[in-house]
Every structure is written in structure tokens, then in C-alpha cells.
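Box 3.1. Reading complex inputs
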Amino acid sequence: MGPLISQGYINPEWNFVIALLLGVAFGYILEASGFSSSRRLAGVFYGYDFVVLRVFMTAVMVAMIGLVYFDYMNWIDISQIFILPTFLTSVIVGGVIMGLGFIMGGYCPGTSFTGVAIGKLDAVFFTAGLFLGIFIFSSAFPLIEGIYYGGELGPVTVMDTFGISRGLFAFLFIVATISAFILVSWIQKRVTKNEV
Amino acid sequence: MKNLEERSEQYINPYLGGVLLGLTVLLTVYITGRGLGATGAVKSTIVAAVDQVAPTYAENQAYYSKFLSDDHHPMNNWLVFETIGIFVGAFLSGLIAGRVKKFRIEHSPKITPKTRLIFATLGGVFFGIGSQFGRGCTSGAALNGTATMATAGLLAMIFIFGSGYLFAYFFRKLWI
């Protein structure tokens, strides 16, 4: 029956009310998890705080398993959900630039909004930088169009890419995630021990 | 009774936070067929502003024109309303936990507030540029993209965090 809006179960007029409410939940959870603090976020790259990895990977895992289950129960028409198209060159270039922005700024866009909401001036500057960056990109677009459309593969999924089933990928992802949790707990213990 | 200072440092368990966040993503996909996002609203604002100031340029420019249509204003967008919600939700959480305070700068004791602000701005600029190449940021591309098993989402996640680790050494003085 899902997605509820495109299948006609919810009137599209409710769309923006739903957007606002889901946004409230999103912002609340990010802030309550400690994502409004850049120093906590940056900890993942230096081994003193892995809150980002724990929250992020758990969230991906839960949503992924949920979708596999909803699909299995026929609660959602999985062919109707949006699949982000892959442009290989563009996503790699973008990912690398975003990682650089993350380590310099200590925030990513969503988390910087939560920092702004509780009064972090550095988050305000990061957010201002986002506006500037997107403006620079948009203005320079004719020069970088080749990269943006580079390596087009269309809306492919990991099942297409690796030739495995949805269930198997979810299983492998769970194994990798839980291994990462165990590994980072061990690293964090060592790093914090050294600091004392 | 704990005092405000102690209480303001208390966050929810990260795995609980992750489960709640994952359920929010699942609910979003179940209701709308799309995911959560953060940079989309910033892009809509830029598109709307440029279209306001220089409509002829915006309608003919290769990037802005992608996001302009005759039947609705660029700010009339799902992600814009969702992002307003992010601010409201984060404010509520901070208010309840005693973390909403007057504007202050969070920085490592080894750097000055000025250095922190310069790098925060630069970080935002890079993240803004990268998010357009990535067709989404940590929320839209990495989190939702990977959860919906889009290859682009998995790649965005790997390259954002991989690049963070790659460059971490050069920026270590900002954090440790």
C-alpha cells in the first residue's frame, strides 16, 4: 500500500504538514543524540568519540531492514520509492569535497542546522558557508557540467551493481555494521586510556 | 536534582538515537516514497533568490533552470518545510535538555574562536559545493540513499567518511 501519498492513501495537500512533522522528529533526534556539537561529530575522525558512527550506522541499518521487511510483507511497493541516480564521477568528487568540508567545519548540513537552533555561532557560520558554496557551484555550473553528468549509470541499486539480492545485501550490511561497532568500542577505549 | 550544567551534557544513548532516526527515515519513505534531506532547502533558497534578482539569467542558466517551473515557486518544496521542522525539533530538544543558550562558539582550547569561525565557514563552503556534485549530503545521499540501497548513496557514504579520514591528519590541530 505504501508509499502512502503516491498511492493515494493520503491527500497530497497534507504533504507540507507531514514534511514539517517529520522534520521536527529528524531535528529532535539529531540534537538529542549530540549532533549539535561539532567537537563530538569530529571525534569520529580521531577516535575519541564515535557517536556519529553509532547513530548513523544504526539508523541506516534500521531503515534498511525496515524496507526489506515492508517489501516482504507487501506493505510498500518498493518500485515506487525514489532511487538516487548514480553519476559515478560526480558522486566521488562530491563525496571527497564533502569529507573535506566535514573535517574543516565539524558539521554536515543537517547537524549544523541543529547547532544553529541551540545557539552555536560556529554552526551559523557553517550554514552561511553552505549558502555560499551552493551559490558558487550554481554560478560555476557551466564550467563543471562535465563532472556533474560524468559516469552516468542511472538510478541503479546495490542489487544491480553487485548482482546480489536485497536480503543478502542487508545481511552483509548488518554484519559489517556490528563489526564496526565492536571495533570502534575497542579503539575508543585505547584512545581515551592514552589521554588520561 | 542535577544542575543545568550537568544536565545539558546528557544525550540519549547513541544506539537508541540511531533506532529512532532509522524509524523516522522508514516512516518518511513509507509515507512519501522519498527521503529526508538538509541541503535541498538551502539550494531552493538560492534558486529562489537568484530568480528574484535576475529572472532572465536564472531561467536560461543550465543549473538554476533545472529547479524552476511555471506551476510552483522554488520555495514551495517538501524539503523546505521539512528543514523548518529540523530547526523546530532541534530547538525543542535543546530547550528540554537545557542546551539552548545565547550565541557562543564551540572550539578546541588550542585554537582561537576566530580560527574556528574561519574553518567553519570554509567547511560549509566545501560541503555546499560537494553536496551538489553528490546530489545530496549526509542526510539525503548517504543516509537515505544507503537505506534505500541506491548505489549512489553507498558511494556517497563511503567517500564522505573516507575523505574525512584522509584529510583528518592535516586538520588535527582544529580538534585535538
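In summary: Strands of chain A lie at 86-87, 152-154.
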